[in-house]
Design goal:
24 strands, about 25% strand, OB fold (Dihydrolipoamide Acetyltransferase, E2P), Nucleotidyltransferase, domain 5, six-stranded mixed β-sheet, 16 helices, about 600 residues, DNA Polymerase, Chain A, domain 1, five-stranded mixed beta barrel, alpha+beta, single chain
Length: about 600
């Protein structure tokens, strides 16, 4: 039996003989450093939880009349309350939607839970695996370069059959090969249409020496590679990806434009886009609210949604984002002018080549700036980087909490039904305190800012759905100002404890940073880690009031903002005693002008 350690880059599952096979894609560490690996796990099965009305044994008998693998009694916590329930193991992930309604229709079944956790995400959570981190597996490399859903011709690829459970490993942040790309289209009739308008350039930049523009025309630049036609250009693009074997492929609006366009042109020209590590082509899958271009075994990151999440700008063109991040102008040609530069030839064509190369370089540099924090969020939240890069902040918080819930045996609440969602949307609560600005010019202005106000309130007041008190109690509790919500002081609630862990970890890292040279690699790594923790902790305060949140609680949201208003109003009053007059306030801080001590 062999042991392999590799960096987990991607995960999916395929079917073989009616059963699921989990596929872990990665890059090997150690003796075969850098070799690609696809590790196959045939042992994991999907499951859901069933909460009976009362008679456990009768419920088990009813469930066993259906086509299931196994049913067993388990103890879990439901919003902090211990409950006995049933874990129903199924044969295949597709059985979950097929059998869900049949199980719900059984007379002894009250509720089912965790039926909407995607199978590959369930696998990561249950096995404590984190993408972008090391995994150790035992088993053997197959001598035949084939496996379920695998048609790769890469002779160096290791296809590994896992025996037992994969084991997460601690290790340093690995080097990964990153390539960016961009396409230019000849579009004389306006917006590019794939059925009509040809691709004229494909540009690429990387951290492993690749810097190239593929085209059917040429100019006196050494980064240009000329092909005889568009078909050969796309084939060469495929060849470069398979030969250079990048771990991450970056684009800008590549989910919505570049990859769909290449895919459509490839179909029209009869080119196989077999750029997946397993030899598969491009797939377009729903990821949250967007359609993502997925390359099996490689991480495709569209930088556009990342920039929408991290920056507040008037527009999000690559040129605008590049200017914001680097305070530099990049080459720009209006989209409806590109075909004119192409047709003109000469200096105009050279400008177009420079623009195309600059697009790929700019995308790479933006990725170099933004990938570290997203890699770190991936290592904290424990879902694939391709998913993390497309998640809204609330989704990241939810998947982080789902993993943490599994660790403490807390059963995960279901997503709200459409009726429940609409009902929640109709409920309102008062937000943070806002004081309109006092008109006029002011001097001697000071800023008062609460450090992590809402996360600190959630922790200090133990605000969580599992600590909310409804009715009378002899326990000690905190009572929110203005609103009648009470929260027990002990034990620590599920969500406050998790936010507390995040903030403590961030403080610990920042303390280490103080003793680390600012120009060192270690300092930059620690800084990325603390920024990722800050991003996650700050995203948590608003989710209680988010209508689609699994742990939604109007009472919790109401109480958090009530305490927030109370703190800021009292601080403004206290500041007045020392001669500071508030001129503007918003949520977690205020501005004041010094007018002198008013106390006699």
């Amino acid at each position: 039996m062999e042991t392999k350690r590799f960096i987990l880059l991607d995960i999916d599952y395929v079917s073989e003989n009616g059963l699921p096979v989990v596929r872990l894609f990665g890059k090997e560490r150690g003796e075969d450093e850098g070799r690609s690996i696809i590790a196959l796990d045939r042992h994991f099965r999907p499951y859901i939880y069933v909460i009976p009305h009362g008679d456990m044994e009768k419920c088990i008998r009813q469930i066993k009349t259906l086509e299931i693998d196994e049913v067993r009694k388990v103890q879990k916590k439901d919003i902090g309350i211990p409950k006995e329930m049933l874990e129903v193991v199924l044969f295949h992930p597709q059985d979950v939607p097929k059998l869900r309604e049949k199980i719900l229709d059984l007379t002894e079944v009250k509720e089912i839970r965790e039926h909407d956790i995607p199978f590959y995400r369930r696998y990561l959570i249950d096995n404590a695996l984190f993408p972008m981190a090391e995994v150790e597996v035992k088993g053997k490399c197959k001598t035949q370069k084939s496996g379920p859903g695998i048609s790769s011709t890469d002779e160096n690829l290791c296809i590994f059959e896992i025996e037992g459970k994969p084991e997460p490993q601690d290790g340093e942040i690995p080097h990964i090969n990153v390539m960016s790309f961009d396409i230019e289209v000849r579009n004389p009739k306006g917006m590019p249409v794939a059925d009509r308008d040809e691709i004229i350039m494909i540009s690429m930049a990387s951290n492993f020496g690749l810097s190239k523009v593929l085209s059917t025309k040429t100019a006196p630049m050494d980064y240009i590679e000329t092909l005889k036609n568009e078909k050969e250009m796309i084939k060469r693009f495929v060849e470069i990806i398979n030969t250079e074997n990048p771990d991450v492929i970056l684009g800008y609006s590549s989910d919505n434009f570049d990859f769909p366009y290449i895919n459509d042109r490839a179909k029209k020209l009869g080119v196989s886009l077999n750029i997946g590590l397993d030899g598969s082509g491009l797939k377009f899958l729903r990821r949250g609210y967007v359609s993502a271009a997925v390359i099996r075994g490689r991480i495709h990151v569209d930088l556009y949604p990342i920039m929408r999440r991290h920056l507040t700008l008037d527009r999000y063109t690559l040129e605008r984002v590049y200017k914001e991040l680097f305070d530099e102008e990049k080459e720009d040609i209006e989209g409806d002018e590109i075909w004119k530069y192409w047709d003109a030839g000469g200096e105009k064509l050279e400008e177009l080549f420079e623009y195309s190369m600059d697009d790929a370089i700019a995308a790479y540099k933006v990725g170099e700036k933004m990938l570290p924090i997203n890699r770190e969020l991936t290592r904290i939240i424990g879902q694939p980087l391709s998913d993390i890069s497309r998640m809204a902040s609330g989704q990241m918080v939810e998947w982080f909490l789902i993993r943490k819930a599994y660790e403490v045996d807390e059963i995960i609440p279901n997503k709200p039904s459409q009726y429940e969602y609409s009902k929640r949307r109709g409920l309102t609560y008062v937000g943070g305190y806002v004081k309109d600005p006092v008109k006029g010019l002011h001097e001697n202005i000071v800023a008062f800012d609460f450090k992590s106000l809402y996360p600190s309130i959630i922790i200090s007041k133990n605000i969580s759905p599992d600590t909310l008190i409804k009715g009378e109690t002899d326990e000690e509790y905190h009572t929110a100002p203005e609103v009648p919500h009470k929260f027990r002081k002990a034990p620590k609630g599920f969500i406050p404890s998790i936010i507390g862990e995040l903030l403590k970890e961030r403080v610990k890292i920042k303390d280490i940073m103080k003793k680390t040279a600012k120009d060192s690699v270690e300092y930059r790594i620690f800084n990325v880690q603390q920024e990722a923790l800050k991003t996650l902790a700050n995203s948590m305060y608003g989710v209680y009031g988010y209508a689609r949140f699994r742990w939604y609680s109007r009472e919790c949201a109401d109480a958090v903002t009530a305490w927030g208003r109370d703190y800021i109003k009292n601080t403004m009053k206290e500041a007045e005693k020392y001669g500071f007059k508030a001129i503007y306030a918003d949520t977690d801080g205020f501005y004041a002008t010094y007018i002198g001590n008013t106390e006699k």
